[in-house]
Amino acid sequence: MKFYLPFVVALLCFGLSNAQPIVGGHSEVTPNTGDDQTLNTNQYMELTSGTFDYGDKSITLDNNSILIVRAGVTLEVKNLSVKGTAILYVERGAHVTVEEDFIVTDTGNAEIHTLYFIAESKIEAKDGGTITGTGRVTYKGGDDYEVDGGSSVCIGTEDPEYYDPAHANYNKSSEPACNKNGNPGFNPDLPVEMIFFNSLVENGEVYLSWATATEQNASHFMVLRSFDKNTWEEVGEVEAGGNTNFRQDYSYTDKPNVVSNVVYYQLLQYDLDGKTETFGPLTVSMNPSNNLEAEVFPNPTSDHLNIAIGGLVIGHSLTISVLDKLGKTVYQETNENSGNSLVYNINDISDLESGHYLLILTSGSQKVVRRFIKQ
C-alpha cells in the first residue's frame, strides 16, 4: 500500500520528486464551476473533496498561481492551461479529465502524481512549460500532442505508461525523451492507495479509521490486534470498495480486554485474488497522554520512510519537516489531527541525496526530532 496525506505546501521543495507547493503569500479563491475560471497573480485554489464538473468551462492558471487537486477529488474541465510560472499539483488518487486542451506554457509546471489524469484531445508543452510527477497521463488525442524545444515532459515511476501508448507522437521537436518514458503496461504497484490510518480512544474503546484514495480488486480489510507486536489476533473484518477512483472512508470500533496500557493494530488488506498487504502497526495508548512520540522506520532507508506517531492532540495541526545537513528544508507538510495516534509514510525519498537527515514533528507547543539515514 502507498499512503498519501493531504498537506498545503509557493515554492517547490527541492530534493523530493513529489514535494508539494508551499502556499505562502497567496490568497485563496473558491471554485466556480458555472464559469470559466482564471487564477490570477498569487492566487491559489485547493480542491479537497467531492466532484467539480466545469462542463464546457475552462480553468486557467496564470502568474504564479497554484491549483491543488487532492486525493479522492474528481475534476472535469473543458480546457486546462498552466502558464506564467503557475503550478498545477495533482495528488495520487485524484481523477482529472480534460476534454479538449491541456496546455502547459510560459514556464508553468504541471506535477501529476495520480494514475487517473485523462487528456481527451490535446497536450501541448511549450515556452519552458514542464510536465512532471510520479503518476500517469492517459492521452486519447491521436496526433495532437507537441513538446516544443525548451520544454520538458518526464512523468512516471520506473516503468510508467506514457501519453501515447505507441509513442508515435512523442516530441515532434526531437527533444530527447526522459529515461522514465517507456512501458505502456505500467500498473500501480499496489491495488489500494491508503490516505491515512489512525485511532481515537474514548471510554476504553478504540475507534479505528482509515481512508483509501483508489482501490483495484480490493476484497476486504482484516483488523488485527496485538499486545506485544508478536502475536496477532483477528478482531474484525470490513468490506472494501472493490474498484474505485475516489476516496473511500472506513471505520471499526474495538473494545480490547486490556492487559496492557498499549495496544497495537494492523490492517491486512485482501485482494479478490487472495493477495494481501499489511499496513501498520499502529500504536495505541489506552490512556492517551499529550506527550508527542514518534518512531521512524526503516532506518537506514533507501526509498520510503514510515512514521508512527503517538500523543497527538485532536484539533492541533501536525507539521512534518525534513532537513538536510545544511539545515535546508527539503520536505514539509501540515495536517490536522483527527486521532491520538497516526501511522503513514513519506512515500518517495529516492531522490534525496545519501546522508543524514533530521525529521522534525511539531504539534501545538510540542516538538520531536528524529534522525534518519538515506542510503
Short description:
This protein is mainly beta.
Helix content: under 10%
Structural class: mainly beta
What's the Cα radius of gyration? 21 Å
Main sheet attributes: strand count, strand direction, barrel closure: 7 strands, mixed
Distance between the termini: 22 Å
Number of strands: 33
Output the number of helix runs: 0
Strand content is over 45%
Unreliable residue stretches: 1-18, 157-189
| Mean of pLDDT | 76
Shape: globular
Please give the domain count: 3
Protein name: T9SS type A sorting domain-containing protein
Signal peptide: 1-19
Pfam family, one: Por_Secre_tail
Keywords: Signal
What does this structure look like?
- The chain is built from no helices and 33 strands.
- The protein has 3 domains: 152 residues; 98 residues, Immunoglobulins (Immunoglobulin-like); 86 residues, Macroglobulin (MG2) domain (Immunoglobulin-like), CATH 2.60.40.1930.
- Strand 32 and strand 33 form a beta hairpin.
- The two termini are 22 Å apart.
- By secondary structure, it is mainly beta.
- The radius of gyration is 21 Å and the shape is globular.
- Strands 1, 20, 21, 24, 27, 28 and 31 form a 7-stranded mixed β-sheet that branches. A 7-stranded parallel β-sheet has the order 2-4-7-10-13-16-19, with no helix packed on it.
- InterPro entries: Secre_tail.
